Amino acid sequence: MAWFRTLTRFSATAKSWPVRTIPTSPSLLLTSLRYFSTGAAVDNRPPPARCGDLEPTRGGEKPRVVVLGSGWAGCRLMKGIDTNIYDVVCVSPRNHMVFTPLLASTCVGTLEFRSVAEPVGRIQPAISTEPGSYFFLSNCKGIDAENRRVHCETVTEGPNTPDPWKFNVSYDKLVIALGAEALTFGIRGVNEHAIFLREVHHAQEIRRRLLLNLMLSDVPGTTEQEKSRLLHCVVVGGGPTGVEFSGELSDFITKDVRQRHAHVKDYIRVTLIEANEILSSFDDRLRQYATKQLTKSGVRLVRGIVKDVESHKIVLDNGTEVPYGLLVWSTGVGPSSLVKSLDLPKSPGGRIGIDEWLRVANVPDVFAIGDCSGFVESTGKPVLPALAQVAERQGKYLAGLLNRIGKAGGGRANSGAELDLGDPFVYKHMGSMATIGRYKALVDLRKSKEGKGISLAGFLSWFIWRSAYLTRVVSWRNRFYVAVNWLTTMVFGRDISRI
Amino acid sequence: MAWFRTLTRFSATAKSWPVRTIPTSPSLLLTSLRYFSTGAAVDNRPPPARCGDLEPTRGGEKPRVVVLGSGWAGCRLMKGIDTNIYDVVCVSPRNHMVFTPLLASTCVGTLEFRSVAEPVGRIQPAISTEPGSYFFLSNCKGIDAENRRVHCETVTEGPNTPDPWKFNVSYDKLVIALGAEALTFGIRGVNEHAIFLREVHHAQEIRRRLLLNLMLSDVPGTTEQEKSRLLHCVVVGGGPTGVEFSGELSDFITKDVRQRHAHVKDYIRVTLIEANEILSSFDDRLRQYATKQLTKSGVRLVRGIVKDVESHKIVLDNGTEVPYGLLVWSTGVGPSSLVKSLDLPKSPGGRIGIDEWLRVANVPDVFAIGDCSGFVESTGKPVLPALAQVAERQGKYLAGLLNRIGKAGGGRANSGAELDLGDPFVYKHMGSMATIGRYKALVDLRKSKEGKGISLAGFLSWFIWRSAYLTRVVSWRNRFYVAVNWLTTMVFGRDISRI
């Protein structure tokens, strides 16, 4: 009688369904009605005209700090801002901060991508909970300092996502932390063919490309020559990023590729091309040590200047042609086109010009921090290097300054100009670190390039490097994840799934 | 004298660079020369013609088992194959197996994507280490049973990656484990606008879309109506996948969205649309329990048949229009277009027709397992449901069978037909499981839909479900990661970074 039981059960459910749902959730039924009736209306009309702006704050409200960017500077600032005094509005095309010092490790699976991305909402919970604070997933398109507002445009993602729309955000205090742009020196083909290493999606692309090339070179029909090309990873730029990536890559090759891609292991090569000297900011002995270690671990160091980049090869100024399968570009950063376009005072080098208190010179209520900012000449101070360290320190300082201003009642637009701002910002260099793979790193604790100080190399400093970063990763969740990632990589090797 | 120290250091390095590198790595210099000289040659010629095939095995070599696909069936088979007897060649467009039962959890950040992806090279290391075994990142384009070979084409990824090329792979034994395709019932717009939930990149897309919509609805210029639409998540199909995803989603909303997206929390809704009854394969009491729990946790259950899908709304057969911001489609699977196109015997329902020993009827040396296969009518057996459970069991059985055949010397093409194959494959259903969120799950241990048996619901079965899957995740690495993911989710909440 199985068929009969089934039959009755089926009909039973059929009948009982509405009977079950209606009483348990009348509210839901109502909402559903609201939905379904309004549904037609939405789509028979053209998409509604966008007309929303975030208007200037009124008497009853807290003064509003608008932060452009979610990098080291912007996030450190938001972390320190007193949300009892200010509402915070962050405008950025990405909802997380990238923990850049560890980004290179994610390309080869030493770390998971998520472990190096810290959601802004976790750094400053107010932006997603406080009524007057917001995070806007948008790009800044311009600044109207006259009327104290920022022009923004939402980001989009192709089909089935809303078309981007423009809106304005009024501010009481504006903090520009837009960061910088990778330098290409106007070399043709860089933007088209090279991958930078600044965002998580860059690391993801490098990883996908690397694994694709590894697998394609194992497929019948690939010539010897082509295998060599596909598996030739070229890194341009011998700064910390380029060196760290080369180190990670050679680690990946020696430890993982040899086992997991045994058929093609003899074809994979890493070449690091630098115009001058690698790690130029580091102590001479450290540089020599790095050179020795990298060479030992199979990284070919080539001195040369890239003249032209094509889809499968680069051309050096001496005419040498270097075929590649993966090209990573890390030759430093410069002012972004947006920063260049802004009608604001500039520092030597074209960054946004700031005074000792990180205020944009002569523009009331506007501040600039991080890679996008530099001291104006009149301060007599040098433009600081584009380092996470500098950005983090400036963000911390400015948070304190704004809190002081706010406490003194100068939080509103066009006020607080006469307040005593206290000590100006002074940058103390805490030294530089760079890993070079194989549990080795460099730690240069000199206060300046010319100064004296301690320099460490090898396992000890690798350990220092690891722990230093581990404690710097913003949330406990990610500290924990990074530790777990490092552990599993040591125990199980790197992850090689291509997703 | 700082400037002088610098000066000397600079020049020192400049001079010492070549001096340092040459002695330490003559081999590298040689390779570099090889590279750079051949470099020019590579790119001044048109890309070399692809002419490589994997030829039939010869006397000295092991017989070759070619496996098409890297899903449950194919991977379980490769895991069990005795690589002392056979060389294994896997052809698949993805280099990992997706642990499908946990895929839904990755969309909302309960699990990391990587935790549910198991690289084929870790399941069967031989394919990346043994000289005669390979993994080819390629699609199967056709089967030439006459000449015992498979037509393949490599996958590509747009610019800067090689154009796809065709090649052939000869086999001694062929195992077709190509899986199935999501059913759309020919409804217009499904492929364009809906997201399936079968691959990791689907889960990634769902996650990105969900977070994009959450953030866009917080931006000035979004109308009330539009917020409701953007944050309306519609799931079509009330099978285990659809139910599990709805459950995870409502978990995500109640536990995370309320805190982290407080501004828009009242707009987000989940609707599950099913033509008949949800979880139709489950015990009636379990189904009622699921319905109650889902409704309680805010999932709106709607009975209806989707007639048409547009970019911002779906239309039901009764004319109701349902606007949506995210549309997930999980209405079961059917034979893929490739399977349909193959000139092989078919089972009822158009799958590849197999006999009791999983051999493709009347096609020597060709086997088929998993969702792509079904018993031919003459066996008198029913076509088995498209479940991971079935695929896994078939893969295991066939590995044993092939090993037996190989040991008996029937491994080569066109041999072993007369060998005693032993017991035919018999499927024993071990029961079904589905989680419905909020630490609750259903476990239906009945042997068949009509049969009697134990049914569990609630926390206990959630725990069983968790542990059952945890022990099923293939590698220890991933078992560990899944456990860690669950732990961190409980402690820190889900991850909300959009990368």
From TrEMBL, chains A, B:
Q: Which UniProt keywords apply?
A: FAD, Flavoprotein, Membrane, Mitochondrion, Mitochondrion inner membrane, NAD, NADP, Oxidoreductase, Peroxisome, Transit peptide
- Predominant localisation class: mitochondrion
User: Where does the FAD/NAD(P)-binding domain start and stop, copy by copy?
Assistant: 64-395
SUPFAM superfamilies under this entry? FAD/NAD(P)-binding domain
InterPro entries named among the record's database cross-references: FAD/NAD-bd_sf, FAD/NAD-binding_dom, NDH-2, NDH2-like_C
Which Gene Ontology molecular function entries are recorded, alphabetically? NADH dehydrogenase (quinone) (non-electrogenic) activity
Q: Where in the cell is it found?
A: Mitochondrion inner membrane; Peroxisome
Q: What is its EC number?
A: 1.6.5.9
Q: Which residues form the External alternative NADH-ubiquinone oxidoreductase-like C-terminal domain?
A: 429-495
Its record classes its membrane topology as: Peripheral membrane protein
**Enzyme type, top EC level:** oxidoreductase
What cofactor(s) does the depicted protein rely on? FAD
Gene Ontology, cellular component aspect: mitochondrial inner membrane; peroxisome
Q: Which reaction does it catalyse?
A: a ubiquinone + NADH + H(+) = a ubiquinol + NAD(+); a quinone + NADH + H(+) = a quinol + NAD(+)
Record PANTHER family: NADH DEHYDROGENASE, NADH DEHYDROGENASE-RELATED
Of which family is this protein a member?
Answer: Belongs to the NADH dehydrogenase family.
Function, in words: Alternative NADH-ubiquinone oxidoreductase which catalyzes the oxidation of mitochondrial NADH does not translocate protons across the inner mitochondrial membrane.
What's the name of the protein?
NADH:ubiquinone reductase (non-electrogenic)
What is the species of this protein?
A: Linum trigynum
